[in-house]
Design goal:
CATH topology of one domain: Rossmann fold
Shape: globular
Distance between the termini: 62 Å
Radius of gyration: 24 Å
Largest sheet: 6 strands, parallel
Length: 354
């Protein structure tokens, strides 16, 4: 019995040793650090924090072929900590959260005269479409076919129309099915009547505390049937047109739940996630494919310049996006498009001269 106990203890220790390793958390100050997220200042305000450190590599996959430098912020370390990582691309997925195709010519439109959807105004939606065209689509093109998977999350469940247009966990449309589905999709979206109620012209308010009634009757964001007519939110949300969706790209549907997504990714050998999309402070954080879910099961890197946050009362998303990314960095690693690079094959060793 004593021998059996020793054997079991040894086996348990061996298993633990195989499952974990000791990471040397050495913080080396970085001299004269350059701004982070400075490549697309139209969309993301560069981060100019000068208290910066570098730590040793955290992920170093055998046969790694993808370099992903990343950073996080620590109040306790009193600065930004940058960490190099070496990933296997085939174990990495790029996930784009909620690339809604609205006001992009696909047929889905912001209801008039006062409806709200996505970034909540057509002008703000146009900025996001430009961001997708100039940042996300080139990023996807660079790594499609190299990473294990390119995926998007959309609201709702898989419906008959989107089943014809996009690959999902259960289905793979042919090229002909996809062409027919696109036509049907556009027709359905264009037939909807995008007209809601106008803004109120009079509001009954309390004489003593008028702000209470005023804000209740006229809130800053009302996405109900009043302004977005009944049926609007049941329409099959498309992927925005600036993104060239490939036949093998995958769509994950929010209403099917995180467990379905997680299990599928694991079945494909995915260990690392490069996360992009909209909106940084909301859907990228808290929906099915948000980092609050994914970071419990995968190594997640938020691609800070491949995302945009909501930006009420501002003509630009620059500052709101930087704020959202910086807040996320407390418990999440942040990277950027230019910090994700292929690793070339190791040079063959040369024979020493005799």
């Amino acid at each position: 019995m004593f021998a059996l106990s020793i054997s079991l203890a040894f086996a348990s220790k061996s298993f633990a040793d195989d499952a974990t390793r000791i990471y040397e958390n050495r913080l080396t100050p970085i001299a004269n650090p350059q701004p982070i997220l400075a490549d697309f200042p139209e969309f993301v305000e560069p981060i100019r924090e000068t208290a910066r450190f570098e730590s040793p590599a955290l992920i170093d996959d055998p046969d790694a072929d993808l370099s992903v430098r990343a950073w996080r912020f620590s109040y306790n370390a009193r600065g930004i900590i940058e960490v190099p990582n070496r990933l296997r691309a085939d174990r990495t997925a790029i996930v784009v959260v909620h690339p809604w195709g609205i006001d992009d010519g696909s047929g889905w439109r912001t209801p008039e005269p006062a409806g709200v959807a996505f970034q909540c105004t057509p002008a703000k939606n146009a900025i996001v479409l430009k961001h997708a065209r100039e940042v996300i689509n080139p990023f996807l093109k660079s790594y499609r076919g190299k990473v294990g998977l390119v995926a998007y999350s959309l609201p709702g469940k898989e419906d008959p129309i989107r089943k014809m247009v996009y690959r999902s966990i259960r289905s793979q449309p042919t090229k002909l099915e996809r062409e027919a589905g696109r036509a049907l999709h556009k027709s359905k979206l264009e037939q909807f009547v995008y007209v809601g109620e106008p803004l109120p012209t009079t509001i009954a308010v309390d004489r003593e505390t008028p702000t209470i009634n005023y804000l209740k009757a006229f809130p800053g964001l009302d996405a109900t049937d009043k302004y977005d007519p009944k049926g609007f939110w049941e329409l099959p949300t498309p992927i925005m047109r600036p993104i060239d969706v490939a036949l093998d790209d995958l769509v994950i549907y929010d209403a099917e739940g995180y467990a379905v997504m997680r299990d599928y990714l694991k079945s494909k050998g995915i260990k690392h996630i490069l996360l992009a999309g909209y909106n940084t402070d909301m859907c990228v954080c808290s929906t099915t494919a948000g980092y609050k879910n994914l970071s419990a099961d995968f190594d997640v890197f938020l691609v800070g310049d491949a995302t945009i946050a909501t930006f009420p009362a501002q003509p630009t998303p620059r500052f709101a996006t930087t704020t959202a990314v910086s807040f996320a960095s407390l418990n999440l690693f942040i990277t950027q498009v230019s910090w994700i690079r292929p690793i070339g094959p190791k040079p063959e060793s040369q024979p020493r001269a005799r």
